[in-house]
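Build the 3D complex.
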Amino acid sequence: MADEKKYRVEVCFSPDEFDLYKQEYTAVVAIDVLRATTAICAAFENGVEKIIPVSTVEEAQAYKDKGYLAAAERNGQIVDGFAFGNSPYSYMTPEIKGQTVVLTTTNGTRAINIAAKTHKVLIGSLINLQAVIDYFVEKPENVLLLASGWQGKFNLEDSICAGAVTDALLKSGKYMSDEDSTIAATFLYQKASVNYFGFLKASSHRRRLRNLNLNEDIKYCLTPNQTRVLPVYKDGALVNSEP
Amino acid sequence: MADEKKYRVEVCFSPDEFDLYKQEYTAVVAIDVLRATTAICAAFENGVEKIIPVSTVEEAQAYKDKGYLAAAERNGQIVDGFAFGNSPYSYMTPEIKGQTVVLTTTNGTRAINIAAKTHKVLIGSLINLQAVIDYFVEKPENVLLLASGWQGKFNLEDSICAGAVTDALLKSGKYMSDEDSTIAATFLYQKASVNYFGFLKASSHRRRLRNLNLNEDIKYCLTPNQTRVLPVYKDGALVNSEP
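Done.
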């Protein structure tokens, strides 16, 4: 084992810190459990062809004006004038099958676009957790799990999802880690995995969404392994990776 | 209890994120367990009169040229030309009694100076943990625990020290918290407090210092409650707060 090359897996808690971490990885997994990356996975599970992540509402509006299906969320709510935001349930409709959707969200699309400038980006969430793990166990490479956080701050659900991946990759024997953020995320996952709902009861973002009557969304977002899709960023858009 | 005003206690994992957190607090506790804030507490325990924290080696050099006792550390080592760095043991000498010391370190003095622009700043570490807790239990106010991190990144030992304070203040019944970073730090402390050394065995910074043969420093820094000093920033320098 000592002679075997190990790949590196680490956790970055916020897109604001990405520059401190980005150098040593070939792949980045963008994670926004509540709700952007969960909604993206749900959309691919329901047959969407492409998702174009944009960072601003203005960009989304420009696409909408050209006739694209466009989704925009800010602070947990659908932006006025858009048909849908980042509720996974809004993507469970035959309307999106084979379509291209343009999406902007408060935190998640920002993380994707920051990382996509320099790295291969994949989309992670609890609903496609095992698909993410299997991908990196089968073809190991240096990978950074990038939590979207909440307006630049640490958030619990993304960090726990990242910790679920690091826990599995480190146990695979093919990976090592060197950052304290990875130790912390892995511990938090181990503690939370017994009962996601209980552990996240106090999370600030969950409270924020509960106040918006989004309990059904939360339940969906916190239920692991509902799909095998693994969206990947290619040529300006997210597509489903080849199996 | 529902009617009683609760004060707020939160954790910020890095000086780089301070701007996201700073608005709502009257006090900030700067924490750099390995080793700046520990060394500062050790210096006051050993009779230093004042410590002037500066952010750059150049500033420290300018004070040194004027005849001040000056200490400078970068990347765990004493900067060439300075008599001491941030080892707590270097402050356990009669030489510093009644003196003013100028200090610059990789992470800790930066955290102090960032926060001191706008807030009352106190110095926290594991060695004066109970003094910090008692201060805020006796005179509650909104307080942010600012981990120094490592070059902007999350670090385990500062986060755990912050979590030790939040754990005690939340249990006092006088405080509430709202940030996910606080939930995470409190949990990490609860997990670590059984055995600091075991938990931090893998911490990146501890490995960094061990490679520099600083095991004695690490043991000292991770042993809680060795002093009741509580340094506070006033008029450009740290002084011991009145008991």
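Chain B touches chain A at residues 13-14, 16-17, 20-21, 150-156, 159, 178-181, 183-184, 187-188, 191, 202-205 (CB under 8 Å).
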